[in-house]
Design goal:
single chain, alpha/beta, four-stranded mixed sheet, 2 helices, 8 strands, 26% helix
Length: 117
């Protein structure tokens, strides 16, 4: 899924192809993962000071903590994947608070500024 960016909270975007898992941050193993990432310098906090409601594990071993619920993020990633595979432009998932709300589709006019398509 190249060039698919997902809003993971407060206008912070993440490449969908880098996501390994989206987990609930309240379990003891999740807290251990978060602490280990903090010690290794691999923790990215995109919660803007709000309560952490999800953790995203990336393929680069970074741990992203977000104030967006696990289910909401899962819906965004699934909808972006479906839109991409349908070939309907380049999806950009915005702040969707309601499960099932569709992604905003941006026409695919070639490469993004500053990067390759």
């Amino acid at each position: 899924m190249p060039n698919v960016l997902i809003n993971v909270g407060y206008n912070n975007l993440m490449s969908a192809e880098r996501v390994v898992a989206i987990i609930n941050p309240n379990s003891v193993p999740a807290k251990r993962i978060r602490d280990e990432a903090r010690e290794a310098g691999l923790l990215v906090d995109v919660s803007s000071g709000h309560r952490i409601r999800s953790m995203i594990i990336s393929s680069s071993k970074h741990v992203i903590v977000s104030a967006i619920e696990v289910r909401t993020l899962a819906v965004r990633f699934n909808e972006a994947s479906l839109a991409f595979h349908r070939g309907v432009g380049r999806p950009v998932i915005d702040e969707l608070e309601e499960p099932g709300a569709g992604p905003e589709l941006v026409p695919d006019d070639g490469p993004l500024e500053g990067g390759e398509s």
